[in-house]
Amino acid sequence: MARVIGAVVVDKEECKGCSVCVDACPHDVLALHFEVNSKGYHYSYMKSPEACVGCANCGVVCPDTCITVYRTKAS
Amino acid sequence: MELKEVTKTEGTMDIQDILKPENLVYQKTKLLTDTPMHYCPGCSHGVVHKILAELIDEMGIQERSVGVAPVGCAVFAYNYIDIDWQEAAHGRAPAVATGIARVNPDAFVFTYQGDGDLASIGAAEIMHACNRGENILVVFINNGIYGMTGGQMAPTTLEGMVTATTPYGRNTDLNGYPMRITNLIAQLPGTSYVTRQAVHTAGGVRKCKRALKKAIQNVLDKKGTSFVEVVSTCNSGWKLSPVAANKWMEENMIPYYPLGDMKDSVKGEHSEN
Amino acid sequence: MGEIKLMKGNEVLAEAAIRCGCDGYFGYPITPQSEVMETLMVREPWKETGMVVLQAESEVASINMVYGAAATGKKVMTSSSSPGISLMAEGISYLAGAELPCLLVNVQRGGPGLGTIQPSQADYFQAVKGGGHGDYKLIVLAPSSVQEMNDFVDLGFELAFKYRNPAMILADGAIGQMMEKVELADYKPRWTKEEVAEKNGDWATTGKPASRKKNVITSLEMASNDMEVRNINLQAKYRKMEEEDVRYEAIQCDDAEFILVAFGTAARVCQKAVEVAREKGLKVGLLRPVTLFPFPKKIIKELARKTAGFLSVEMSAGQMVEDIKLAVYDAGSNARVDHFGRMGGIIPTPTEVVEALEDKFSWELSYGVKRSY
Which of B50, B219, B238, C184 is the most exposed, having the fewest neighbouring CB atoms within 10 Å of its CB? Predict the structure, then answer.
């Protein structure tokens, strides 16, 4: 059976590191990076990309709309 | 768009095979401008702006839309959603929206107001606009505090809640009680759809978007005033991290301001509850 | 020749609004101008021209309804009387700050406070100097007849849109309540959607088509540099008004040794006072400012060079007299400026005015006029 897999792209310059997406992710894919962006925020990134199912919860809750979500089925 | 952080998914597929236009399931709506929002990290305003922008785009009403921004943190709402906007005086957005809607009956007019703006200084304007059944949408952000002026008490501040002007907690003898203004609004026959939502979870955001969609449709169908309260966080004002603020809201705000529809009808009919 | 009728000043305002293609009136009852909205409600213009009429919950609401509607590029107005205008002050400042054209009417009554419902001119400062916060000006028209109540509605809108600025008709309870013969204007159609877009599309919030950027109506600037630029532009606009749109009436000023300066109801009284004075052999003229802002400074400066004195006759403790003094000072003239007024809702009589003139200028009258140029 084909497995649903997803991926997210965080616009790290727009991210304010609020970590609401980290909290909203049901599969613990996201985390705040130890590095900061030019504004000084620890931006969100895919720490465990293999766990992403592309549910888009992170994108939906993001107040700064800096997350784009993709989903497909793995062959 | 920044792709450097994503390299490879282990095993099955290369990440670049997933990041293709045909696999896109969620992206920023084109109705949001490129101006970065000035809101604090984790602020609910950004989420509500986003779903409003998505709906205006999806419902194809950009050319008919006129937004009315409040005084408060959302004063710059006009920088973020790509429609025509007016900036109202503090509390007067419902009167401004009335003026727009009356002389432009085909426009989709909405106000976007906070708790200080709507429930305190603008209490008369919101009551009368709703009572007249103006064909407008009111988006009411209730985070129990004045955000922009530095975290003072709002009419909706909870009992015991610490703010800049209730440093020892809201004392009801001194300050009265937290106002459930949406419940009062639901009693007015001019309203059609009155609901209370929250956007602190993905499920909540999706529900809130459905509620806003219905509210907008009611306005387009000229059913009367639609009123959507969004119980929100002000993590800076509450002095909590964004995630902790969401949790605090769930444990404290929502029990006092329970979520759900309060009225779903057309103007001229009284609320059932 | 237009239709001629005998009408109250307040009724004429309503009739003129309908006929000049006004899109909306938002108001709140207050004596002595309630007939404006009452007349509109009887006329039901929404059935005839599509004009909207709405009774708001307060003056605070009505001025903000005007703000919202005006910001969509339409011709909208409100009317009130003194205490109501005070309530509107915030909204008027916002209208001026956001550069929105609209028509405001103040049918003045005596103040301060709840005051009286009788006519007064004590809101001169409030009308011409601001009234709300910030450096702004209204275009202020002072009618002294029911005919001018009619004419200034259309003129007010014309000037408001010329400058993207609120215009105010500063009347008083006497002009509002009295009945006179008036020649009504012919009907002008309301602007169509296309006309609004053509005339005001570059700023009005008509709904954003794909063809243009979004229009935003605001008076807010976070950076003080930007806010100063806004202020500089506003001041330039006010100077342009002073260049191009001063209106006044000079009656028997050519040979006058003394000039009465009065507007509105006081000007009617003074017109009679000029006759009384001339019968007594006093060479008196009347200067009637029609625009209180822009104030007719230039003519006052000219007159100051050939006149012994100015008597500002106002139904107030003396407000316009300050603007006359400034103009005379600017002219470098020695002409003396004094004031005579009645307050609390009292209209002076022509005899009182002449007596006041004789009293205040007794030195000049006894020892001869000292030419001051």
Answer: C184
